[in-house]
């Protein structure tokens, strides 16, 4: 895979550059190397590839291959999120939810999670359910919490299934 991806990547193909970055990040077929992953993701990210922008944000968040920097992570996550990348939208939501590099703002976290949840992303759907359950950024509403958790359960997510089970057990809905 690396041989063929590299042929396209060196010609400037952003999707191939992301593929090369993924192989270096995971260590599949090549020694794991976060710095090389970062370099290849950056080539694609600078071309506007939202997947690469999201991965750049994640590497800055984790401090893999680069110095950990929540401000730079948020900058790259936001670029991808504004293009509709659901994973990046969750990342931006997490940054607002936990106050990483930005002030903690549950309402903004909710808005970004909602963008990803409406795309069918189960992880975002669970986060929306939790915010409704706890009343962070929105008015507490156990029925809406249950609705969002239920949306994530058909996708086989155990956390959502546990949440739904706990609601039924507690008679909160």
TrEMBL record:
It comes from the Eukaryota. InterPro entries: Mitotic_Regulator, Sel1-like, TPR-like_helical_dom_sf. SUPFAM superfamilies: HCP-like (SSF81901). SMART domains: SEL1 (SM00671). Pfam families: Sel1. PANTHER family: ACTIVATOR OF C KINASE PROTEIN 1-RELATED (PTHR43628), CHITIN SYNTHASE REGULATORY FACTOR 2-RELATED (PTHR43628:SF1). This is Sel1 repeat family protein. It comes from Linnemannia exigua. The lineage of its organism: Eukaryota, Fungi, Fungi incertae sedis, Mucoromycota, Mortierellomycotina.
């Amino acid at each position: 895979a690396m041989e063929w991806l590299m042929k396209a990547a060196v010609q400037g193909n952003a999707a191939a550059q992301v593929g090369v970055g993924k192989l270096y990040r995971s260590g599949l077929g090549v020694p794991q190397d976060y710095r090389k992953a970062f370099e290849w993701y950056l080539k694609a990210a600078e071309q506007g590839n939202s997947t690469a922008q999201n991965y750049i944000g994640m590497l800055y968040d984790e401090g893999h291959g680069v110095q950990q920097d929540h401000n730079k992570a948020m900058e790259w996550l936001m670029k991808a999120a504004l293009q509709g990348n659901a994973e990046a939208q969750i990342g931006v939501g997490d940054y607002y939810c936990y106050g990483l590099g930005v002030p903690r703002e549950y309402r903004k976290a909710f808005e970004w999670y909602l963008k990803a949840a409406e795309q069918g992303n189960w992880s975002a759907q669970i986060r929306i359910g939790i915010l409704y359950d706890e009343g962070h950024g929105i008015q507490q509403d156990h029925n809406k919490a249950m609705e969002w958790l239920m949306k994530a359960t058909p996708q086989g997510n155990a956390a959502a299934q546990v949440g739904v089970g706990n609601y039924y057990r507690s008679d909160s809905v």
